Amino acid sequence: MASLLEQLPSFSTILSMYASFSAMAMLLRTVFNEMLPKRFQTYISAKFLDIASTCLSADFTFIIEERWQAVHNETFRAAEAYLPTRVGPSTESLLIGSNEPLNPRAPPKQRIPVDCKIVDEFHGMRLEWTLRNSVDSNKYFPREKRYFRLSCKKRDRDRVMQSYLPHIARTAQSILNRRETLNIYTYNQESSVWESAVFKHPATFETLAMEPELKQVIKEDLDTFVARKDFFEGVGRAWKRGYLLYGPPGTGKSSLVAAIANYLRYNIYDLQVQTARSDADLRHILTSTTNRSILLIEDIDCGSKVSHDRTRVQDDHEDTHDEQQNPSRISSNDPGVTLSGLLNFLDGLWSSCGDERIIIFTTNHKDKLDQALLRPGRMDVHIYMGYCTAAAFRKLSATYLGIEHHPCFVTIENLLQSVTVTPAEVAQQLMKSDDPEAVLRSFIHFLGSKRNRETEIGT
């Protein structure tokens, strides 16, 4: 023991070492504060704190951004659906609201507000979630960036990746499959975001006024598409399906879109092509849509020349007149969307950005569309939405009048063979009264008058 004490440095030696260390620390601090530029001081301090926190902290943080490599982050979307189910006593704030104006007594739905902390327990692990947002530095097209911070113990990091996040994905998929309400989105060009509204269109395949055989073909095609994920991956094709709905106005194209959305429980993204400033802007808009959704481009032949048949020769006089009537098109700095830019998303390299998507185009004039847009792989299914037939009339009669048989049906069906009338016109006539007898006789008179007018025009 005595020999050990003899080996220890004396008090004066310790005091001398402390004085030397203090002097060296003061010298380093003086050099750091007076000789290094301020930005270097900030950088070194931040690095030192990062190293210290890494060495001393026992926590690990995952960052889950809303977008991942130019597309919507499915992990973010899964967390967004999953976390409202994990609200507990420790939750300090909650975003609630109702989107059912016809049912004001319905309980409000829950969402996670910014900066709200959600604590979850999974297989003995304690997980803390926080939603954050920021605005990027792009001064021309600033966009809000949302992201989740998921904190756990460092020792649980691998278990979170291997077990917890897959659990969230499975749970979120189950939630989305049975979601009660759908959304329809429109693109806000000024803020560069999709804005949503509740979609409550009542159309279903049961209420559609179209041939039963055609309805069955469409439903079977949709069922086959949803069930063939492995097939699409096996043959190396993007998991998407393109539909072209064409025919005269008022023949039920929009109602068929609504019926498809209600049948699949898919949200709808309603896009006006002319809102995109360029092909690059169009790619950003389209990749911002989510999986399991419908991309709807209505009246593709109107409002934009992107889809027009390139083989047609344009009248120079018409072009000049168009420029005179629309001078803003000439002076605009936006190059606009090209046909090749649209096609590249439909079946080019960018078509692989997203899974399980239905792309629907509608048009009143199929003959105006470029053939490159119509071929299989882009528009896989072409559906003609024509004038009202006998079967369609019977469906409309059952829906609007509540009757499936009536002596007047024979006269009406005979007239429909020689009169072109759209389902929308028929529905308008059937809504005139609550008396089925009066409505049917009025409808017969309407069809007779229209036949006479068409005969006069033909002669």
TrEMBL record:
Entries under InterPro entries matching the protein: AAA+_ATPase, AAA_N_dom, At3g28540-like_C, ATPase_AAA_core, ATPase_AAA_CS, Mitochondrial_chaperone_BCS1, P-loop_NTPase
Alphabetical UniProt keywords: ATP-binding, Hydrolase, Magnesium, Nucleotide-binding
Classification via Pfam families: AAA (PF00004), AAA_assoc (PF14363), AAA_lid_At3g28540 (PF25568)
Biased composition (Polar residues): 326-335
CDD domains assigned: RecA-like_BCS1
Basic and acidic residues bias spans: 308-324
Catalysis performed (reactions): ATP + H2O = ADP + phosphate + H(+)
Region (Disordered): 308-335
Family (UniProt): Belongs to the AAA ATPase family. BCS1 subfamily.
Protein's name in the database: AAA+ ATPase domain-containing protein
Source species: Hibiscus trionum
